[in-house]
Write a structure and sequence with these properties.
The structure is a single chain. The protein is built from 5 helices and 19 strands. A hairpin with a 4-residue loop joins strand 4 and strand 5. With 288 residues, the chain is α+β, with helices and mostly antiparallel strands. It has one domain.
C-alpha cells in the first residue's frame, strides 16, 4: 500500500491514477473523485469461462481440447483468435454487455473507468491480456517477435493489473504449461472509479514528472491500435484528436505547459476538472 492506494491496491478518493501507454508514449492522468463500489471491492467470479471440448493451442504442437467445463487443459494455451471474456454472473446479468462484464460505452460512462486486479488460482497459470481483443501487445526487438502466453516471455503468473477504459474491449489469455488439467478460480479486486482529468497544465506536468504522488500503471500496449486511439478520442474529447499527454523533462516545462493547455482545451466538459478561477477563490476568502 502506498500513500495513494489502500489495502486492496486501489486508488483512494481524491488521489491520482496515471495510466501510461508505451505505444503512444503518452499518459492519461485521472483524479479519482469517488469509488462507486465502496465496500464491494471483491468479486469472487469463479472459473474462467471454458466449455468442454473447446479448442486450445498446445505447447506440444497443434491443438488440444478442454476436458470439461471450466477446466484448463494440460499443456495448453488460449489462441490469439479465441481470447477469453468474462461474462457477467447470473445475478449481474443487467450489465451493459452480456458477453463482457467490464465493457462500458463512452456515451454513458465517459467519466468512469474500472481499475482491476485479476487474481487467479492456481497461481502458476500464465496470464496475458489483449488490448484491444485480438491484438497481442507484448513485443521483443521492436516488432520482430510477438510475445504471449504461448511464448517463453510475454505473460505473468497468476494475475494481472489493468484499467478498463470505455469503448475498448480486452481479451484475457491463459496458459497451462504443466501436464495436469486444472480447475481454477478467479477473484477480481476492482474499483469502479468516477474520474476527472485535471484541467490545469501545472498539475498535469507535476503528475507526469512525479512531483505529485500518484499510482502509475503502464498498460502492455506496444502496438498502438487505431481502435485504442478512437476510443480515447470519443471518450475524453467528444471525437476530437486527444489520446493523452506526452511526457517532457523538467527542462522543457514551458513548452510542455503550452502543449498541455492546448490538449486540455480539447477535453469534454464531462471529464475535465476545471481549475477554480481567481475570482471564485477571492469570493471564497471573503465569505470566510
Amino acid at each position: 500500500m502506498s500513500i495513494v492506494t489502500d489495502d486492496y491496491g486501489l486508488v483512494k478518493d481524491n488521489e491520482h491514477l496515471v495510466v501510461f501507454v508505451p505505444g503512444s508514449k503518452k499518459a492519461l492522468p485521472f483524479r479519482v473523485l469517488a469509488r462507486h463500489n465502496r465496500g464491494g471491492e471483491i468479486l469472487n467470479y469463479g472459473s474462467i469461462p471454458i466449455t468442454s471440448g473447446e479448442s486450445w493451442g498446445s505447447y506440444d504442437g497443434g491443438t488440444t481440447t478442454a476436458p470439461a467445463d471450466n477446466v484448463i487443459p494440460n499443456r495448453a494455451y488460449t489462441m490469439t483468435n479465441s481470447s477469453k471474456l468474462f461474462t457477467p454472473p447470473g445475478d449481474m446479468s443487467n450489465t451493459y454487455s452480456s458477453t463482457d462484464m467490464f465493457y462500458i460505452p463512452a456515451d454513458d460512462f465517459r467519466n468512469r473507468i474500472f481499475h482491476i486486479y485479476m487474481d487467479l488460482t492456481p497461481h502458476f497459470i500464465r496470464c496475458g491480456i489483449q488490448i484491444p481483443r485480438g491484438q497481442n501487445q507484448l513485443r521483443y526487438q521492436n516488432n520482430r517477435v510477438i510475445l504471449g502466453v504461448d511464448k517463453t516471455s510475454g505473460w505473468q503468473w497468476g494475475g494481472l493489473e489493468l484499467v478498463q477504459f470505455p469503448e475498448i474491449n480486452m481479451g484475457y489469455m491463459f496458459g497451462n504449461d504443466t501436464n495436469v488439467d486444472w480447475y481454477n478460480s478467479v477473484v477480481f479486486r476492482y474499483g469502479e472509479y468516477i474520474i476527472g482529468i485535471p484541467g490545469d497544465a501545472e498539475t498535469i506536468f507535476d503528475l507526469l514528472n512525479k512531483n505529485r504522488p500518484a499510482h502509475w500503471l503502464e498498460l502492455p500496449i506496444a502496438s498502438y491500435d487505431s481502435t485504442i486511439r478512437a476510443g480515447f478520442n470519443k471518450t475524453y474529447a467528444d471525437g476530437r484528436d486527444f489520446d493523452g499527454f506526452k511526457l517532457y523533462s523538467k527542462e522543457d516545462k514551458a513548452y510542455a505547459l503550452n502543449e498541455y493547455a492546448a490538449e486540455i482545451s480539447k477535453l469534454s466538459p464531462e471529464v475535465v476538472i476545471s481549475k477554480p478561477s481567481n475570482t471564485n477563490v477571492s469570493r471564497q476568502r471573503m465569505v470566510r
